[in-house]
Task: inverse folding
């Protein structure tokens, strides 16, 4: 298995296509950071316009922590599409290239190949997420400095002390890794079905868009299935930034408002990962390699 | 000792019987030629030998082990190229060999990678990416990957595809060297029958998924039964008189030309008969090649 993983990782990181996602993330983050650096104060004023009459906020509101939160809100919706570029190509791309028969005639079972490829694709996904964290969090902290994190929610505001923020980002990125690994496993499942590269990539993206729409629709019929859709849970990294308050409405440092919600989301996402990968293994084991 | 033992395997794709009740054996040290027209089931059979395709029925044993239950053990001792030499265009020849070396339990040293590059004539292009390679060079690299781990059984599906005459000759010499000097068992399929004739000691002819013949080439190509190609002054008349004579049984159905499968001692009689019938003979070419044997078998079946 170790041989397969290193074989696959070598191929992934020698392919020019791999670096599209790294380039796209870097370009987006740098453009947004540049915009906020140049014209950030008017953006902050726009955000605060509704509460300026009732609340006075001192300090550096537009700090690295807030920038990272804004970036994650924007990017974690789109990064799955970049992950699909690689994950959905892992098996079908080999079938399309004709190299699948070369791999499957080596002394490893197909189950070993599928699991090895999935682990390699997962490592790629995690590396991409680390790259995102480096640019979105640490570069923002360096460029914009640090202060308390002030977040405007739909009908309340959250103020988290700066020494209570970093661990929440660690939690949010770990949670995001589960979300992205769900996409990786979905791409993988699509990849095991097809014999060309484009179909599974488009299929994975379409499935994400389709289920995201279902997750956001407030129609009673769909409300029944919403808790079981992975797209309902993918953005719950934000729960790390909702904080409990005491009776005096003061924030309790180190607390999370709804830990159960995070746990449920992790269980749903993990179940999807296991289900998608097991199905991909089953399909690959059964199919004849005709490409 | 039997290296490959195929027992009554069939493969159906829906209503299509790609391989139908095929059985054969390949003995250790043989160069076994696998012949058949396009769509005859050669590649399907080879894919079943490598467990890329699951047989609908029947069993395959390689080195005495079932490929179905001891797949990994069996594949450790096989090197193969299957149809086209499909490789990773963004990797170099050397990178391919280094990567595939990792997938073998046998220790493959950097020097044996260099030796393999020399063996397939790619030492000067070792660091070039595969997308710059010609089809022939890709084919050589595919063969290099198949030979890298020094397997006991080598399965080569159309190994001379895309090679120039020098390349074909090199591969032929390599196959003969591997069989004679290194004692490898080789199963080779090719549509170039003359190639097989020069390389193989045994052949199997497959047609529409069924075995038409198999055995040692020496036995199958009976020297007492010559195939004669006649060039006459009037081919139409020649065919008419042959059909009306006792020689009609020897006439072979061919799209063009007059071909007869005839015992060698009857050739002078045929010659005399045609002259008496007013047909001038320009050339009598006696042939006994694998190609003629193959065409004779498959045309009779058609």
Result:
């Amino acid at each position: 298995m170790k041989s397969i993983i290193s074989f696959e990782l070598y191929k992934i990181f020698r392919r020019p296509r791999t670096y599209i996602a790294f380039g796209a993330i870097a370009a987006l983050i740098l453009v947004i950071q540049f915009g906020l650096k140049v014209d950030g104060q008017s953006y902050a004023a726009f955000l605060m316009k509704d509460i300026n009459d009732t609340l006075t906020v001192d300090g550096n509101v537009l700090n690295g922590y807030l920038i990272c939160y804004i970036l994650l809100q924007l990017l974690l919706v789109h990064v799955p599409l970049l992950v699909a570029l690689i994950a959905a190509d892992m098996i079908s791309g080999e079938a399309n290239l004709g190299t699948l028969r070369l791999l499957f005639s080596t002394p490893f079972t197909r189950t070993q190949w599928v699991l090895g490829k999935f682990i390699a694709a997962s490592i790629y996904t995690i590396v991409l997420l680390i790259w995102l964290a480096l640019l979105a969090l640490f570069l923002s902290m360096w460029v914009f400095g640090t202060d308390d994190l002030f977040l405007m929610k739909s009908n309340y505001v959250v103020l988290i002390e700066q020494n209570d923020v970093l661990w929440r980002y660690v939690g949010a990125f770990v949670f995001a890794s589960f979300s992205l690994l769900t996409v990786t496993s979905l791409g993988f499942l699509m990849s095991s079905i097809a014999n060309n590269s484009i179909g599974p990539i488009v299929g994975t993206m379409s499935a994400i868009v389709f289920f995201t729409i279902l997750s956001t629709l407030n129609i009673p019929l769909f409300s029944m299935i919403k808790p079981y859709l992975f797209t309902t849970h993918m953005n719950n990294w934000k729960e790390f930034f909702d904080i409990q308050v005491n009776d005096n409405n003061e924030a309790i440092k180190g607390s999370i408002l709804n830990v159960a919600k995070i746990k449920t989301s992790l269980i749903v996402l993990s179940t999807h990962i296991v289900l998608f990968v097991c199905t991909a293994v089953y399909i690959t084991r059964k199919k004849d390699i005709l490409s | 000792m039997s290296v490959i033992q195929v027992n009554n395997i069939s493969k159906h794709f829906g209503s299509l019987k790609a391989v139908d009740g095929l059985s054969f054996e390949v003995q250790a040290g043989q160069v076994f030629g696998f012949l058949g027209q396009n769509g005859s089931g050669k590649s399907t059979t080879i894919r079943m030998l490598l467990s890329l395709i699951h047989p609908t029925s029947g069993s395959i044993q390689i080195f005495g082990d079932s490929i179905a239950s001891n797949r990994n053990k069996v594949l450790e001792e096989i090197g193969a190229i299957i149809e086209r030499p499909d490789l990773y265009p963004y990797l170099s020849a050397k990178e391919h060999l280094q990567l595939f070396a990792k997938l073998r339990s046998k220790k493959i040293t950097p020097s044996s990678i260099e030796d393999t590059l020399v063996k397939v004539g790619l030492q000067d292009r070792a660091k070039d990416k595969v997308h710059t390679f010609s089809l022939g060079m890709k084919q050589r690299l595919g063969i290099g990957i198949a030979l890298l781990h020094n397997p006991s059984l080598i399965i080569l599906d159309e190994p001379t595809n895309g090679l120039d005459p020098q390349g074909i000759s090199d591969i032929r010499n390599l196959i003969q060297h591997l069989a004679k000097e290194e004692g490898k068992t080789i199963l080779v399929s090719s549509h170039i029958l003359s190639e097989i004739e020069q390389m193989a000691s045994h052949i199997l002819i497959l047609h529409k998924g069924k075995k038409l013949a198999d055995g040692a080439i020496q036995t199958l190509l009976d020297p007492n039964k010559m195939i004669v190609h006649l060039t006459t002054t009037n081919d139409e008349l020649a065919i008419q008189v042959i059909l009306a004579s006792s020689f009609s049984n020897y006439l072979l159905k061919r799209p063009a030309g007059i071909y007869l499968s005839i015992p060698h001692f009857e050739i002078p009689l045929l010659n005399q008969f045609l002259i008496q019938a007013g047909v001038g003979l320009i050339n009598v070419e006696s042939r006994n090649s694998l190609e003629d044997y193959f065409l004779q078998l498959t045309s009779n079946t058609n």
Observations:
- Chain A has a mean pLDDT of 87.
- Residues 110-144 of chain A form the longest helix (35 residues).
- Residues 189 and 279 of chain A are 7 Å apart (CA to CA).
- The interface with chain B takes residues 3-4, 6-7, 10-11, 14-16, 97-99, 101-102, 104-109, 286, 288-290 of chain A (CB under 8 Å).
